[in-house]
């Protein structure tokens, strides 16, 4: 195995976790349980406590329970972790070459996991199951594929960029629609500010929100998808190109004008959305996952006024003004140590239960956007907000989500630099130079 290079940096905490996890993982990775039945160690970040709240958790865990009922001969040793805990532990186990049988791999980790022989190529297994293999929406397998080999099974897809806005607040300032160009955006921001209301609430405490929901979409508005493909190929585009700087400047202008909450870098996504619910902002930017949050938790007056939009076209931009950053971002992968046989067959069946047709229909019916095409489903069960989010997701021209495609070293620099730009400590040009240096370093090692 190649020397492991940590996706986000293995900290002292990870090292401590490795010492505590190594022995347990060694036994759970065996093919048989004590009584001779097949045993599968599953580690992921879906929570029983989120059933009924999160479409992904609801659908995936329903699949696990259906599998257990239909296949009692297979033992599932399941470990559910919170997102941050999962990230720390998974990287620690990867560094120790001690991963469980089945685990979650974000798209931005996939290159390192493939390069270090951690994940199993799945083409042969998927070819045995063509109906399942061919049921995934176009492009959803891409971030889990390297050099033609599929290493990850996608779970959910859909846009990471949608604007949830309070139509009543916009009507109060003379807009019967979300602003159609950036001059209107700034005008609306000024009129809302006069009423003591922020145009957008924004929460980037954990880093990553800005890149996923703002920067990916805005950069495409200015540069178009060809720029992104050139960056990924390393064949000419640069982060110091005008379009990337303009995208960051657009965000910086909103912050400098005072149209965002001042604590934008110190609050998380939940707080960001709560500001919208409280009427402290007229809109927020998020992915499809926030639709059910609005449905389940917004006050009735806010819920009834909420509509959806996307960023307007960029002046002189090369991108599709109706596009949204989207696609599948998280994948189930299998430990590369698993050999063909009953255990691998059982794992593939489990993954089909968790991500395939029945799971996809359930996810769609409770307000999610599955990677597997659910076909016809009972959309009457959906609240109008959730249905609008689903329809926007299905209709959108999906562009790449940068944090799933750019190398983790570049993602980390962008996530850190954008906080400095939004606080006024750095300029967009300075950020672009820093990201470009990280990009050059990455290219030199590739």
UniProtKB/TrEMBL annotation:
Signal peptide region: 1-25
InterPro entries linked to this entry: Bact_solute-bd_prot1, SBP
Keywords: Signal
Pfam families, sorted: SBP_bac_1 (PF01547)
Stretches assigned to coiled coil: none
Gene3D superfamilies: Periplasmic binding protein-like II (3.40.190.10)
Official protein name in the record: Extracellular solute-binding protein
């Amino acid at each position: 195995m190649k020397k492991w290079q940590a996706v986000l940096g293995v900290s002292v905490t990870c090292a401590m976790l490795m010492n505590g996890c190594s022995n347990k993982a060694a036994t759970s990775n065996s093919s048989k349980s004590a009584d001779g039945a097949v045993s599968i160690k599953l580690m992921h970040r879906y929570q029983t406590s989120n059933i009924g709240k999160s479409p992904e958790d609801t659908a995936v865990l329903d699949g696990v329970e259906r599998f257990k009922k239909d296949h009692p001969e297979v033992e599932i040793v399941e470990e559910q972790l919170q997102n941050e805990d999962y990230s720390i532990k998974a990287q620690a186990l990867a560094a120790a070459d001690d991963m469980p049988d089945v685990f979650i791999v974000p798209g931005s980790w996939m290159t390192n996991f493939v390069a270090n022989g951690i994940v199993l190529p799945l083409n042969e297994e998927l070819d045995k199951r063509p109906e399942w293999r061919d049921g995934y929406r176009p492009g959803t397998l891409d971030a889990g594929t390297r050099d033609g080999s599929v290493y990850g099974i996608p779970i959910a897809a859909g846009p990471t960029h949608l604007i949830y806005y309070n139509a009543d607040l916009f009507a109060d300032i003379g807009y019967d629609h979300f602003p159609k160009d950036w001059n209107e955006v700034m005008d609306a921001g000024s009129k809302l500010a006069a009423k003591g209301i922020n145009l957008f609430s924004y929460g980037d405490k954990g880093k990553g929100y800005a890149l996923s929901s703002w920067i990916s979409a805005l950069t495409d508005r200015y540069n178009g998808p060809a720029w992104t493909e050139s960056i990924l190929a390393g064949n000419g585009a640069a982060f110091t190109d005008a379009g990337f700087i303009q995208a960051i400047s657009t965000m910086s202008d909103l912050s400098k004008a005072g149209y965002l909450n001042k604590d934008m870098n110190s609050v998380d996504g939940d707080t960001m959305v709560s500001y919208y619910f409280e009427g402290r902002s007229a809109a927020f930017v998020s992915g499809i996952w926030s639709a059910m949050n609005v449905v389940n938790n917004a006050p009735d007056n806010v819920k009834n006024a909420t509509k959806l939009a996307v960023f307007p076209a960029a002046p002189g931009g090369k991108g599709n003004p109706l596009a949204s950053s989207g696609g599948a971002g998280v994948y189930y992968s299998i430990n590369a140590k698993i050999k063909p046989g009953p255990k691998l067959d059982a794992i593939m069946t489990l993954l089909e239960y968790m991500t395939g047709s029945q799971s996809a229909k359930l996810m769609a019916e409770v307000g999610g956007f599955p990677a597997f095409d659910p076909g016809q489903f009972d959309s009457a069960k959906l609240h109008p907000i959730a249905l609008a989010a689903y329809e926007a997701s299905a209709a959108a021209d999906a562009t790449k989500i940068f944090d799933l495609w750019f190398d983790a070293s570049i993602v980390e620099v962008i996530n850190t630099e954008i906080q400095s730009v939004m606080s006024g400590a750095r300029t967009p040009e300075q950020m672009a130079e820093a990201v470009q240096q990280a990009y050059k370093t990455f290219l030199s090692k590739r």
